[in-house]
Design brief:
437 residues; alpha/beta; Rossmann fold; 6-stranded parallel beta sheet; binds uridine-5'-diphosphate-xylopyranose
Length: 437
Amino acid sequence: MRNICVIGTGYVGLVSGAGLADFGNHVACVDIDQSKIDMLHGGDIPIYEPGLKELVDRNVKAGRLAFNSNVEQSVRESEVIFIAVGTPMGANGEADLSAVKTVGKMIAENLNAYKIICTKSTVPVGTGKELSELITSHAPAGAEFDVVSNPEFLREGSAVKDFLLPDRVVIGVESDRGEQIMRDVYRPLFINETPMVITNIPSAEMIKYTSNAFLAVKISFINEIANLADKVGADIHTIARAMGLDGRISPKFLHPGPGYGGSCFPKDTEALVYTGSQHGVDFTVVKGAIQANRRQRQVILEKAKELIPDLSGKKVAILGLAFKANTDDVRDTPAVDIIKGLKEAGAIVQAYDPIAAENMIKYYTPDLEVRNTVDETIESVDLIIILTEWNELRGLDLGAVKSRVNSPNIVDARNVLSVDQLKMHGFNYRNVGRSLV
Ligand code: UDX
């Protein structure tokens, strides 16, 4: 059991803090945003993450988890400090580390004993070295500490499960003392033999970027294969299934769609390309994936225009705004570009999402017409476009849909609808990679 403080209570910091408390550690989650701390003190969770409220409540009740906004004091009282602040994309793709540096300086000035400073945020390779130098320059003379890299692999919508039952834990550490303490922090996972990758700091920092970039490449790859399948009458689901039967490929992350979004893949791929450019390494494959991903939004728009060549004055229902199902997150969601393209073509757009509509209006499209139910959204429209694979959309009653719409046109950008059902009910449809099936 160790005394830990986690700085930053976003979905990474809050899930990690509550998870570390669940492992038996004593954890203080701190944030400079007092309103977030007030919300947490009120028993509310500032983000939508299945299972997080139960995890937080259980550990607060057990006295292992607390929240406050006094970073300095929490640092002084802790032995292990996790940095979980945002590292958004900077102007030319590089990761913006200003928050990490601000926190690093604050930690240095409060180093009243040996501590571990652990980067949980996704940071470019070389950050650990930079952080160590920054802390040394601001810490009291002779202060002892170790910087550690412990990247997160949390998927939004399943972050709690991904933290408590990870595929692997990656720890970049360069002292025995530091390694011992990190083993203690993750003791329950050691006991149940979770694979642990203990390595040096640059390797640990790279593992996060390489994993995310590879997943992004995989998605762009299957999207381009799907685009060819649509032209030649092949079925992408069969292609993906057969590919996935090869153990070297695996069936996961071969679902074609409107392109990846979220707070990680778009940012991490650009950051990796930028890091490469700083070291004379040209990431042509990752750059290709980024380009293909941008293009996939236009591919969905082209499908809409295949069904209705002249969209001006036509009513279009967008079903799904979140960048993926089971989250209210709209960061870099394909819906932004697709709604923009529809409006540029003169379409009248109305949208529905079970939980992400408020964020869409708040962060991207203040004038977006949103409706509270699917039925209201599709009433008398000329075209439906499905952009997020919400389960409720998988179960759409196409007979009822047909009776509500003005024209039976559907672009199913997530392949959630049965092609047989679409045919049976006389819809004109496009999907991604099985439009001629
Ligand atoms: C990702 C990584 O999976 C996670 O390990 C990392 O820590 C953070 O970034 P996340 O962005 O939350 O997690 O979602 P993920 O489920 O990975 O999906 C990312 C994007 O890829 C979404 O837009 C999703 O719709 C898309 N996607 C995913 C596909 O288009 N096809 C797929 O087969 C899988």
